Amino acid sequence: MSDLRDFPDASFSGVHHGPLQAGEWITLSDSKGRRHSVFLERGKIFHTTKGGIEHDELIDGPDAVTIRSKGGVEYLALRPLMADYSVSMPRGAAVIYPKDTAQIVTMADIFPGAKVVEAGAGSGALTTALLRAVGIHGQVISFERREDFAEVARKNVTGFFGAEHPAWTLHVGDLVESLEEEDVDRIVLDMLAPWECIDAAAGALVPGGVFCAYVATTTQLSRVVETLRAHGEFTEPRAWESLVRDWHVEGLAVRPGHRMQGHTAFLVTARRMAHGVQAPRKKRRPAPGAYGDDYSGPRKSDTPTDTPGTTDSSATDT
């Protein structure tokens, strides 16, 4: 009897149990932690500097085993986790790394059955996480401007789930020009100018829906946050980044690792107010100079401060 947990065709979880099969990806790791992604095919050999490893020695065998190359070097063979797959997948555009994917799925509150719009799809790393989170009863509608990137994303997502995911629709085109969806629960943007999509996002999101943007630079961060504020019908945006540092642990030698996953990008979230309802205005006074003569970004002239008699921060912050 097969393992009842192994139902990828029904659940599209991307997780498999039981013996390794031809057509699956595995991760081979050596004693120094170096990893290799291998697509199992009958009759093939994976070549290393320490000799080859025959795929047939792994196919039909159990997951999580060790195998020796022809040169006698031991390797750990494991089915990859989604995080492993996302960083090793073939790339068109750069991928969103697991530390940020996890933040997006949690902080944007991606839930089973959600209707999620994503732009751009890139290489499909975030798409796989969104699809797993919404499940087969949800929807992920992805937009990608470049057809070559869209094809890479399609192959990677299909490769992870083992078939075309029933909850996924991929459009080649610009979200601003092509978005026709309504009653969208979440919108996640990974693009150069997400502020250009804020009006379109506002029109598609349900009241209380979450807008999330992934941007690499401080100038992008400032522009998207201020555009959300100027729109008026989003809650006060929240902006942050995540840093991940491993620790070295050997007996009494416990210390931070020498390397860490530092800045990759900033995340911004805000929630959609009901149509026609203005969010409560920010009352904390901006930092001196924040909106001085050099500032040229989006900004409402009636932005309040908590200083009596001050009506325009740009008049006092120069």
Automatic annotation (TrEMBL):
Gene3D superfamilies the UniProt entry points to: 3.10.330.20, Vaccinia Virus protein VP39
Keywords, ordered alphabetically: Methyltransferase, S-adenosyl-L-methionine, Transferase, tRNA processing
Protein's recorded name: tRNA (adenine(58)-N(1))-methyltransferase TrmI
The protein's Enzyme Commission number: 2.1.1.220
Family assignment from sequence similarity: Belongs to the class I-like SAM-binding methyltransferase superfamily. TRM61 family.
CDD domains the UniProt entry points to: AdoMet_MTases
Top EC class of this enzyme: transferase
Catalysis: reaction(s): adenosine(58) in tRNA + S-adenosyl-L-methionine = N(1)-methyladenosine(58) in tRNA + S-adenosyl-L-homocysteine + H(+)
Keyword Endoplasmic reticulum: no
Function according to Swiss-Prot or TrEMBL: Catalyzes the S-adenosyl-L-methionine-dependent formation of N(1)-methyladenine at position 58 (m1A58) in tRNA.
Region (Disordered) residue spans: 275-318
Record carries keyword Membrane: no
Organism: Kribbella koreensis
UniProt signal peptide: none
Name of a matching Pfam family: GCD14
Occurrences of domain tRNA (adenine(58)-N(1))-methyltransferase catalytic subunit TRM61 C-terminal (ranges): 85-250
InterPro entries for the chain: SAM-dependent_MTases_sf, TRM61_C, tRNA_MeTrfase_Gcd14
Subunit structure: Homotetramer composed of a dimer of dimers.
Biased composition (Low complexity): 304-318
